[in-house]
Design brief:
The chain contains 4 helices and 12 strands. By secondary structure, the protein is an alpha+beta fold. A hairpin with a 2-residue loop joins strand 7 and strand 8. Helix 1 packs across helix 3 and helix 3 runs antiparallel to helix 4. It is elongated.
Length: 213
């Protein structure tokens, strides 16, 4: 099985799968895009050939996963998969703001999302988070980290391979802690108490010598 592991937006990822089987073979392929949504791959096969080709043309940069499955006469006959990287073509993809004078650039700096080739968020997405958080940069950065942490919790789980160990829940915990720190800093700047049980009022003793009012 051969495939290119890295390509550009607008290119075509293709993987060949050799199957030496007899019977009616059906191969299907699915990719998982960087935003964790699935997409179908195109399957090509020439009559008499033992090779099936699955292809997909990516429209965004990032790491993709793919999985091919085969059935023979309606019964499961095997599966294979892997990952591939798509580079961000600066001439074909929206540029990202790295200027730290700008709020979006500030947020990128705080969450270390400064890789032009593989940004975690588009400027539009960061702008939306910033708007949701009332235009406060540190709160916008906290929301971005919370979004990443949620993704880690949903898809990271705990993945271990021979040469890579990724503990999704631990990463999510660290991100949430960083987000909480940023929100606390914003609270101090805004003069808001970070204690969740502090609601901005005091208890007043209304007991009088004559009894309760």
């Amino acid at each position: 099985m051969t495939n290119p592991r890295e390509l550009w937006i607008g290119g075509v990822f293709a993987v060949d799968w050799d199957l030496t089987v007899t019977g009616t073979v059906v191969v299907s392929g699915t990719v998982q895009k960087p935003d964790q949504t699935p997409a179908s791959m195109t399957i090509d096969h020439a009559n008499g050939s033992s090779t099936w080709r699955a292809s997909y043309s990516p429209t965004s940069a990032g790491e993709y996963g793919y999985r091919l499955t085969a059935t023979v006469d309606g019964a499961a006959a095997g599966a294979t998969g892997g990952t591939f990287l798509v580079n961000r073509d600066r001439t074909g993809a929206p540029p990202i703001t790295l200027n730290t004078v700008m709020p979006i650039g500030m947020i990128r700096l705080l969450i270390t999302d400064t890789d032009e080739a593989f940004p975690l968020f588009t400027d539009e997405e960061i702008g939306a988070l910033l708007a949701i958080e009332g235009g406060v940069v540190k709160r916008g950065a906290a929301a971005a980290l919370e979004t990443i942490a949620t993704s880690e919790t949903l898809i990271g789980k705990k993945i271990t391979t021979q040469d890579l160990s990724t503990d999704g829940p631990a990463v999510a915990k660290e991100l949430m802690a960083r987000a909480r720190s940023l929100r606390d800093q914003a609270d101090v700047t805004d003069g808001v108490a970070s204690d969740p049980y502090s609601y901005g009022f005091d208890f007043v003793d209304i007991n009088t010598p004559g009894g309760w009012l």
